[in-house]
Amino acid sequence: MASLILVLGDQLTDNLPAIANATKTQDTILMAEVREEATYVKHHKKKIAFLFSAMRHFAQELKDNNYNVDYVTYTDERNKGSLLAQVEAALSAGDFDQVVVTSPGEHRLLSSIQQWENTLKTPVKISEDNRFLATPQEFSDWAEGKKQLRMEFFYREMRRKHNVLMEGKDPVGGKWNYDAQNRESMPDDHKVPKHSTFEVDDITQEVIELVESEFADHFGDLDNFFFAVTRKDALKVLNTFIEERLPNFGQYQDAMVEGKPWMYHSHIGFYLNCGMLTPKEAISAAEQAYHSGQVPLNSAEGFIRQILGWREYIRGFYWHFMPQLKTDNYFNNDRNVPEFFWDAQTNMNCMRQCIKETKQNAYAHHIQRLMVIGNFSLLTELSPEQVQAWYLAVYADAYEWVELPNVAGMILYSDGGNLASKPYVASGSYINKMSNYCKNCGYQVSKKTGPKACPFNYLYWHFIDKNKKKLSNNHRMAMILKTYGRMKEDNINAMKEDAAKFLTKITKNEEV
Ligand code: FAD
Ligand code: DLZ
Ligand code: SF4
């Protein structure tokens, strides 16, 4: 029985059952660069260049391993523009008994593929994606009947189940979580080791030229492309991280420094999410580094928690709450994303730096995404739909299954608290504590009101004031509401006035 095996751009893993079970002499692997996937949001140019180059390199490796591969490039005259049309064309051109596709990472695509059998009049087998450590069903079983879902408890289950950093039934070191040691800011003169970079080869160069001509109107810079595009190089990124950065990962995980976009983070999200690396190998590498005395426990545990905890939790959460999660809007926010999200033209230095780096690198680290851009998005009441589309487009590691819960659940609280135990909002003092952005800002972080006051300060209290009713049944907001209750009415009114002026400027796309 001959199968046409469709491999998507984020399925570049050779031991996926759909690939590993292929009969090399009779099956064909189909991969295609299609307009529909590249433009349903206008992905960052670097993201498209990265993914197309990684896809081309992966296809070449499969060919070198004697698989039949039908690779349709973006400008191939056979290109039909969508995955379905491409599969249809391949079925007409060949003699296949069935289509096999690994379950995709997005609800949109899964719903579509579930209909393909009717359209194609050929059996379509949706094969399991075995790259995660928990299945969506496992998450739903765990969530069943729980009043509150909290990542920390799911993470402990995963630690036990996969026997990661465990001593019998207990966590290594006696504690599950070492976050209390992970909140340091970085001294200005601290030297961070240089991140891994790779030369552009002929395949990547060709793809860069393609993106320059075909996606000229997309956001983002293409120059200075240095991502890994092969598994071999992605493994180098992981290994270099473990050796050079993981020892300080925990300590500086939340720190932000102007001009240092990469910090002590691993930068493996790009590779994990398209399948060039597996979560299991990243977790094992960190665990081994701890056991061999190379890294302290707070760093190893902190990093493992991101992958075994957050990444798995987020994925389970996505499938559990879709499609509702995409349209939830707890605070009924609907302001348009301002222009400066695309060109970084703002006097708010923290926003300028984070958006500028996003434009340059298709990357910003977690706290930049969460506590600067995310915090701003919630405080200025931006439309969840538009913020989701922005985050999905601009980061090279963004796929809806991981982007959406982070945006809807973590930063915007648009799901009403299923993911986050309270809205992640903060005034300027948090950003000032964790970064050096405020030193070079047109606003003054110490000022609460007036034209020079840091907008995060009055926007924060405006948010609390406006949503106090909705927040009052959340015990984690009790302290803040108490502080708010003690504030003088004059001060609250002055902040509300400044917030209203600022929000009008955002609505009118005026300079802020
Ligand atoms: P590191 O800081 O080195 O962390 C290691 C790994 O842990 C990451 O590569 C990632 O796989 C995992 N991880 C850490 N935090 C999370 C999290 N909250 N959710 C899921 N995995 C996590 N991550 C994405 O992979 N794709 C996205 O589209 C994405 N969008 C985000 C949007 C917002 C608003 C926020 C707040 C976070 C988002 N994240 C996303 C999570 C996190 O910011 C990125 O995974 C991380 O910045 C990637 O950089 P890194 O590989 O250097 O990660
Ligand atoms: C993100 C992306 C892009 C930009 N382009 C393609 C493509 O041309 N062909 C393809 O197969 N996949 C692409 N992808 C990844 C898909 O969008 C991804 O598989 C789905 O969003 C499911 O996660
Ligand atoms: Fe950002 Fe406010 Fe600091 Fe400026 S003063 S960098 S706006 S937190």
From TrEMBL:
Recorded coiled-coil stretches: none
Family annotation (SUPFAM superfamilies): Cryptochrome/photolyase FAD-binding domain (SSF48173)
MF annotations from Gene Ontology: lyase activity
The keyword Lyase is assigned to this record: yes
Keywords: Lyase
Matching InterPro entries: Crypto/Photolyase_FAD-like_sf (IPR036134), PhrB-like (IPR007357), Rossmann-like_a/b/a_fold (IPR014729), UV-DNA_repair_photolyase (IPR052551)
Oxidoreductase among keywords: no
Domain of life: Bacteria
Record protein name field: Cryptochrome/photolyase family protein
